[in-house]
Amino acid sequence: MTDFFKGMSPVKYEGPESENDYAFRHYNPDEIVMGKRLEDHLRFSVAYWHSFAWQGGDPFGGQTFERPWFGDSLDLAKMKADVAFEMFDILDVPFFCFHDADIRPEGKDFRENTDNLKAVVDYIEGKMEGSKAKLLWGTANLFTHRRYMSGAATNPDPEVFAFAAATVKTCIDATKQLNGQNYVLWGGREGYETLLNTDLKKERQQAGRFLTMVVDYAKKIGFDGTILIEPKPQEPSKHQYDYDVATVYGFLKEFGLENDVKLNLEQGHAILAGHSFEHELALAGSMGLLGSIDMNRNDYQSGWDTDQFPNNVPEVALAYYEVLKAGGFSTGGTNFDAKLRRQSLDPEDLILGHVGAMDVCAAGLKAAARMLEDGKLEAARDARYAGWEGSDLLSSDLGAIADRVLAEGINPAPRSGRQERLENLVNRYL
């Protein structure tokens, strides 16, 4: 045991009237919603990188956090794991996630990185034996180190491509060892800063081959989890190859991977791509590609990915409505890719940030479930498209359609989309 969270008891559900800051008001893990426990719907996960590796910097300022485990040694990495599992137990979360660089010290070369990763993974495996927390997904950090300044899979230097591929291999191995339910590829720098030195076709082919190798290797070693891509628009690159759901779908189709890979979608990334979170979720769900989500929010007055904890129940409800419509999570879950503000220095802040976010998500999912079970929104949607029932228009051709319009004197009048009525309907459930 460490003394970082000294004196903090496990957070329990106390109901909406509770005045206890360290209690859940809406998240009762055993509450049954649409025939399933709330914990099994939401499948909460803590992000190792923001909660335990992030030092409190921003684009204009350096470290503000002082944590006793900061530093590059195996002993400190093990202390970090001790603190992490203490927090998982306080929050009673079922899952956590990590990049390799979050949990291991940075070595002088690939061999040392691999040895360090193996040592910490073995230690975490031991920690998991005494905790309910499981690994939702693992991934590789292929963006922070200066070797990746021009990308990883899309790098013009084949040696960087090789280093990245070897690193991902070790991370898939680690994820399998810890019985991770997914493996995520997040292309933080898979893009370009100027077209003057970029071969778009070549870099796209490299990215496609890289992902194909990942899928092939996962199958080879018997990893039965889901391979996920996390779409990411411009930031930090001017353009990135995995910009949004539609872009990634085209990429997967091009390389024949649409049946092997699903998507991990983040609210903040959706906003940066010019979409709403529910848009990206709805599109992925309609394509059968929805795998998991990173739940956070952006500051709408800032033009970058601020990764704040969610606090807007109406926004979250619309997101979970699309998740539930798509059938809910199987291997995926709700990962809090969210970090404290750099002025929030205390251990208590780390707990309370997650407590509030878990409550917001629980309230949002329950509102979404009420909306879906009531059926009025879907009935209104079905009514809008009712004219297509029994229609053969989509199997016809332009000439035949033109003849029919002339013969029947078709002259349609516009119909109201009833948007305000539907917005009012949604607000009844919140």
TrEMBL record:
<dbReference type="GO" id="GO:0005737">
    <property type="term" value="C:cytoplasm"/>
</dbReference>
<keyword id="KW-0963">Cytoplasm</keyword>
<dbReference type="GO" id="GO:0000287">
    <property type="term" value="F:magnesium ion binding"/>
</dbReference>
<dbReference type="InterPro" id="IPR001998">
    <property type="entry name" value="Xylose_isomerase"/>
</dbReference>
<keyword id="KW-0413">Isomerase</keyword>
<feature type="binding site">
    <location>
        <position position="294"/>
    </location>
    <ligand>
        <name>Mg(2+) 1</name>
    </ligand>
</feature>
<comment type="subunit">
    <text>Homotetramer.</text>
</comment>
<keyword id="KW-0460">Magnesium</keyword>
<feature type="active site">
    <location>
        <position position="99"/>
    </location>
</feature>
<feature type="domain" description="Xylose isomerase-like TIM barrel">
    <location>
        <begin position="144"/>
        <end position="276"/>
    </location>
</feature>
<dbReference type="GO" id="GO:0009045">
    <property type="term" value="F:xylose isomerase activity"/>
</dbReference>
<dbReference type="Pfam" id="PF01261">
    <property type="entry name" value="AP_endonuc_2"/>
</dbReference>
<keyword id="KW-0479">Metal-binding</keyword>
<feature type="binding site">
    <location>
        <position position="266"/>
    </location>
    <ligand>
        <name>Mg(2+) 1</name>
    </ligand>
</feature>
<dbReference type="InterPro" id="IPR013452">
    <property type="entry name" value="Xylose_isom_bac"/>
</dbReference>
<dbReference type="GO" id="GO:0042732">
    <property type="term" value="P:D-xylose metabolic process"/>
</dbReference>
<protein>
    <recommendedName>
        <fullName>Xylose isomerase</fullName>
        <ecNumber>5.3.1.5</ecNumber>
    </recommendedName>
</protein>
<feature type="binding site">
    <location>
        <position position="269"/>
    </location>
    <ligand>
        <name>Mg(2+) 2</name>
    </ligand>
</feature>
<comment type="similarity">
    <text>Belongs to the xylose isomerase family.</text>
</comment>
<keyword id="KW-0119">Carbohydrate metabolism</keyword>
<feature type="binding site">
    <location>
        <position position="307"/>
    </location>
    <ligand>
        <name>Mg(2+) 2</name>
    </ligand>
</feature>
<feature type="binding site">
    <location>
        <position position="230"/>
    </location>
    <ligand>
        <name>Mg(2+) 1</name>
    </ligand>
</feature>
<keyword id="KW-0859">Xylose metabolism</keyword>
<feature type="active site">
    <location>
        <position position="102"/>
    </location>
</feature>
<dbReference type="InterPro" id="IPR013022">
    <property type="entry name" value="Xyl_isomerase-like_TIM-brl"/>
</dbReference>
<feature type="binding site">
    <location>
        <position position="305"/>
    </location>
    <ligand>
        <name>Mg(2+) 2</name>
    </ligand>
</feature>
<feature type="binding site">
    <location>
        <position position="337"/>
    </location>
    <ligand>
        <name>Mg(2+) 1</name>
    </ligand>
</feature>
<dbReference type="InterPro" id="IPR036237">
    <property type="entry name" value="Xyl_isomerase-like_sf"/>
</dbReference>
<feature type="binding site">
    <location>
        <position position="266"/>
    </location>
    <ligand>
        <name>Mg(2+) 2</name>
    </ligand>
</feature>
